[in-house]
Specification:
Chains A, B: Its EC number is 3.4.21.88. Chains A, B: Residues 1-65 form the LexA repressor DNA-binding domain. Chains A, B: GO terms for molecular function: DNA binding; serine-type endopeptidase activity. Two copies of one chain form a homodimer. Chain A has 201 residues and is α+β, with helices and mostly antiparallel strands. Chain A has helices spanning 6-22, 28-35, 41-52, and strands at 56-58, 66-68, 75-85, 92-103, 112-115, 131-136, 145-150, 153-161, 165-169, 178-181, 188-199. A nine-stranded mixed β-sheet of chain A has the order 4-3-5-6-11-7-8-9-10, with no helix packed on it. In chain A, helix 1 (6-22) crosses helix 3. The first copy, chain A, binds a DNA duplex (30 and 30 nucleotides) through residues 5, 7-8, 27-29, 37-42, 44-46, 49, 60-65.
DNA sequence: GATATTGGTTATCATTTGAAAACCTATCAT
DNA sequence: ATGATAGGTTTTCAAATGATAACCAATATC
């Protein structure tokens, strides 16, 4: 990130704190009040400078339209999906059961929770009923745990790409892998599993 | 939480999504636009209803002054502890590795994360390196997974209280339970495990 | 010395926005 | 039938808010 002046840092820190305390960003005048300056032009200039250097984005014309870079919100509210339908380019999520807030360091893009059904990943310590944190993406690396669409249903499998086929391997000795040879059939990767959460209470 | 109508649910979901996308809440008119209604009074009534039922708070007179319950306030920043020391009445936590934000529906009191070491709970699908969400309490119910102090170290075990002894059962066939007869020795329960989180990225 | 850059003042203006009044229309339980 | 409740329209108003103009001053930088 490009360097900023101490005054600009002051503005940035105030905005970040304000968002934490209130859940929404301050107005120009609220910032001005904190800086103990009158008028909004000085504030505008600071915001312009911070925007140019990539520290925030502004929604012009909109009150409180300040978006801090790297923290759409410090915590994101993640939908918990019961069913995932593979629509392209973005998978549509149906049956949103609930929402959970989670740390943004774990979240990018349209991440969502998917409730795991079945025991196909039991050897990876993923149980029926767990919540899989899924980051949508159409491709995967070997050994990634992915959500893939098979027969219109979303399943969790470990992903392997070989020379002439793709293998979706369950982590359950009693279950057979799904093998799709190149050119035969299609594997729709919905996303990669980046976390597992299991409420026990 | 008190029940709300489907229309009110629609408003609440829209606000939650808006905050996620933009980092700040919508105005009354933005909500009205989404509901495809003209005028702001209908929206005001929904917000009033939602506020009365505790789903949000409003900052009157302030634009975008909507604070969702379960966000700013109800998202807690939880310490991730590397080591737990059994001090009474509250266990002290040393070596705070990090902090994670998590939904408050899962959090009460001084809840904290503890990094799991070892495979003692492998059959309960808890792996080495997982983060156990621990709610501090000195007692437990049968079959609860608890954090207990044994030889000055915190371990995860399943808790059983029988007539004349307490048994701390590992969920690992290769490990022996710890049995403490009434009057002989002491079992210090640090807390109950109310969730498991495993980052995979 | 010329000239950016940063940070500021005061004042003004057009919009955006929250709030409210007056009134309408279903639905549902008493 | 008769309210209560949820949900809505149109209109209006005052306050909050972003934007901009005209201008000032200190501090670098070339």
């Amino acid at each position: 990130m490009q360097p900023i002046t101490s005054r600009q840092r002051e503005v940035l820190d105030y905005i970040a704190g304000f968002v934490d305390r209130n859940g929404y960003p301050p107005t120009l005048r609220e910032i001005a009040g904190h800086l103990k300056v009158s008028g909004t032009l000085g504030v505008m200039k600071h915001l312009d400078a911070l925007e140019q250097r990539g520290y925030l984005r502004r929604q012009s014309g909109s009150s409180r339209g300040i978006i801090l870079a790297g923290r759409t919100a410090q915590t994101a509210s993640i939908p918990v999906a019961g069913v995932v339908r593979a629509g392209l380019p973005q998978p549509a999520i149906e049956d949103i059961e609930d929402r959970l807030a989670i740390d943004c360091s774990l979240v990018k893009g349209g991440t969502f929770f998917l409730r795991v059904r079945g025991d196909s990943m039991i050897n990876a310590a993923v149980m029926d009923g767990d919540l899989a944190l899924v980051r949508p993406q159409a491709t995967a690396e070997n050994r990634d745990i992915v959500v893939a669409m098979v027969d219109g249903e979303a399943t969790l499998k470990r992903f392997y790409r070989c020379e002439d086929h793709i293998r979706l391997q369950p982590e359950n000795p009693g279950m057979e892998p799904i093998i799709v040879r190149n050119g035969e059939g299609e594997v729709a990767i919905v996303g990669k599993v980046v976390g597992i959460y299991r409420p026990l209470d």
